[in-house]
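Here we describe the complex-level prediction in full. Unlike the single-chain runs in Section 2.1, the two entities below were treated as one system.
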Amino acid sequence: MCELLGMSANVPTDIRFSFAGLARRGGETGPHADGWGIGFYEGRGCRTFHDPEPSARSDLARLLRAYPIKSRIVVAHVRRANRGRVALENTHPFGRELWGRPWSFAHNGQLAGVKRLPLGRHRPIGTTDSEHAFCWLLGELEARWSALPSPRRLDAALPALFRRLGDLGVFNALLSDGRTLYAHCGKHLSVVTRRAPFGRATLLDEDLQVDFAAETTPNDVVSVVATRPLTRDEEWRELVPGETLALRAGEVATLPGSARAAALTKNQG
Amino acid sequence: MCELLGMSANVPTDIRFSFAGLARRGGETGPHADGWGIGFYEGRGCRTFHDPEPSARSDLARLLRAYPIKSRIVVAHVRRANRGRVALENTHPFGRELWGRPWSFAHNGQLAGVKRLPLGRHRPIGTTDSEHAFCWLLGELEARWSALPSPRRLDAALPALFRRLGDLGVFNALLSDGRTLYAHCGKHLSVVTRRAPFGRATLLDEDLQVDFAAETTPNDVVSVVATRPLTRDEEWRELVPGETLALRAGEVATLPGSARAAALTKNQG
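The structure predicted for the assembly as a whole is:
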């Protein structure tokens, strides 16, 4: 198991508070000591930092905790290796260009037989199941469209692709094209949305508190997705296994075709 | 104009000394204040740092100067924007996966009409001529081979492709697939090889000296390519316009089909 952290916001937002909690789980409060990585979307670009060192002891992670990169979409991961040795090329998030956009992907879980899924033009650099799954996903998307589809079309296509991966084992994952952050719950994933009136939050993994009211403006909307809740004084919602979220500008929507959407429709009917 | 820095070594080597000189040219001793980037190959992976801030004033550049990443191949760049606005996505080195390898590319110069060159599957994320040239190069390579060719085959193909770009203007460039560092001189590029007996070197741009004898073992071979020599007490060789180098494990070879090779052959004949 690894831990995931994703963020979507309507204004460039500093992820350092949440990242501090995640980084501690990489070898200190958690066993995920086999590397970590974080990608920040900025404009059309994406800046990614990877380190095969445990995040709790990584010089680079310490530097990033002191370095205010503001972003609207963040994809981060701390790794506990199960398939694929501890090495830079096996460190999430993985990145690839498709249709002139930088795509990012991070995953936790195990996927039996994923390497039998046929690939398009994107090929793994490392040896993880996760990177193979990412390359397969991009190949499936590229087989459907020759140019960047609208967010709405991607929203419609991704839940079924995620379900196919989920059928192979545990598939908790984050995927972004720089417009939308997609989050899929295979087993464990929680989400929280912060908006006015902002309160205080305290990290579960570190004696660190933040007063969001002092850090934000009243119009800010920021959502954070994580394998396990990162704070103790906020209301995190646990996703239903099979549920896919689309996060845009901080707003969270459960996608049709994913598990919770089916349950919600049923309850309405 | 921008400035390039490349390194090839037979053992993982710390680039910080040379990077310190380059970083100063990004807005202090040089006018290249429109961002910078550096890629380090480690195993099969490549770790890349990008920053649209001037390197001389960049927090991230200061952090990297304190952070000993050891690598066999490094590709670095400080930028002075001429085409493409100052933005993360326009910051070199550009990276793409091809045949399961992370490729890196950095360029200085201007290429008239390069955007008319047809692209394969790799598409620019930003708006620079350089990224378009990189995507075109990868498309040309992919049209020739369906799987990773040997270094020898790439050595044979690249000089002609570089010449086609050179015909469009000034093309000083670094390209790597993680096995070889290719360096092409359009106008200005210099190279130095450090091997036993190692001496001292002093940066031209900063009052910083290094005693390589204390930092290396007798078997180390390290070559550095840069737009302009970085040190004052070493013998840098200026490349001939049109010359392409292949650097592997610190050893430098001028490729057949490139300008100096033709001159050398002529002199022998």
